[in-house]
Description:
- There is one protein chain.
- With about 475 residues, the protein is an alpha+beta fold.
- Among the domains are: about 95-190, Pdz3 Domain (Roll), CATH 2.30.42; about 190-280 and about 305-370 and about 390-445, 2-enoyl-CoA Hydratase, Chain A, domain 1 (Alpha-Beta Complex), CATH 3.90.226.10.
- About 25% of the residues lie in helices and about 30% in strands.
- The protein has 12 helices and 27 strands.
- Strands 4, 5, 6, 7, 8, 9, 10 and 26 form an 8-stranded antiparallel β-sheet that branches. Strands 1, 2, 16, 17, 22, 23 and 24 form a 7-stranded mixed β-sheet that branches. Strands 12-13-14-20-21-25 form a 6-stranded mixed β-sheet, with helices on both faces.
- Helix 1 runs parallel beside helix 2 (about 60-70), helix 6 (about 225-240) packs parallel to helix 7 (about 260-270) and helix 7 runs parallel beside helix 10 (about 340-350).
- It starts with 8 loop residues before the first strand and ends with a helix.
Amino acid sequence: MKRFLWGLCLSVLFVGCVDDSDYTNQKTLFKYVNKWVYDNMDQLYYWNTTLPASRSTSENPSDYFKTLKNKDDRFSAIFDSYEEISNELNGINSAEIGFYFQLYYESPNNDNVVGVVLYTKKGTPAEKMGIIRGDLFRKINGMQITSSNYSTLINSLFDNTASVNITFSTHENETYTDKAAVTVIKAVNYKEDPVFMDTVYTVQNKKIGYLVYNFFTNDAGDKSMKYDLELNNVIGQFKQQNISELIIDLRYNRGGAMTSAVHLASMLVPNLTTNKVFAYTEFNKNYTDYFNSSAYKSKYSDNPFVTFFSTNINVTASYPIQNVGNNLQRIFFLTGHNTASASEMVINGLKPFLPCVLIGDTTVGKNVGSTLVYDKDNTSNQWAFMPIILKYFNKDHQSDFTQGFIPDYLVSDDYKHPMGDTGEGLLNKAIRQISGLSASPSKSAPVNHVLLKSSFDFKPIHAGLVVKTQWIDSYLNHNNK
């Protein structure tokens, strides 16, 4: 039986109706784009029956798109550059500052804002400069970050300028002391590897695998499946070292390709087989009717409503999944308020098969999936959008986490220790649970920070589940006949 490989984002090429209009005129272009958006939403959108009546409008497509979204839809999004958003889904950034961060209010007594580095990206100028997790910064291009200007200043970290001046600070006895400003060069066309860190610890004769996985993508857009194969090799090494406990760190993982989610879950589930159900999917009536039709069944034997665990990663050759599930009696997931979508799908999909212990903070709560829609026939239309097209459930038809998964142990992120340091708060809590050193299962109190924003909030995609399947395209082709 052929399996469906779902991703956090579904790539779709949808045809627009090109005419002889002058698209150099913004109003004419926007009018075309808005009709194109509505027509596609009418076909694809999970909540398409709640769409308002179609209307001719030349307003900005971003504003128009908001009028189409269902009240329960937190995640559908529109973008003014298909190329930019496509690259981001594959972890490619044209001008990469080199680190992720959180923003906090400096004090309840003023409007100043301070940033703290979460992790530095490998191979970037920022890493070579020695910027590390826990570093604090208060000024950008010489200006103090405040609650009123932070959006403008932070955007300069993500724009296409070649560099930016950042003032880092130390904090001691409730006082911040600024260092000399430094110029951080941005990495050009940077390709981020989502497999950030892996290691094995030996604690009280137990071997514990630890993996930091920061987003779900198969590869950098070259169809090599490079990152999925790298992930597979890591799990294979864990298996060779005979680990008996596993910690998967998803605290900064906002999601990504559903195919990668299936592959990771397949590496972890006990007793892996091709007929073991990973997820069930629910679509709107358009999709449902087509997938149940004779027109579909005459072409495909696959069942779009069921996704099975995978035993292979298929590229030009087929690579067996390296499965460690039979070594485990449970899995520890480190989570945070940025953990979303494909990350939650993996957790939800594994819950029926073995205990999943969550440590950290409550997750986002995204139990729906999107598709990336762009206009392949009208080059004047560079817009793209990602509508929600499906809701997913695990083997037991559970999908009740729209408020996020609440951790078994609430532990605040610990920026004072490097990732992978056994003294780091979330990792330390997991190791103590494994070793039996923890005296009580009571939840620990969070650190008293007032969170403002994170670097993820300045990205076009905040959380995603991308799906790429031939049968989605077959529906579109069938509908456009």
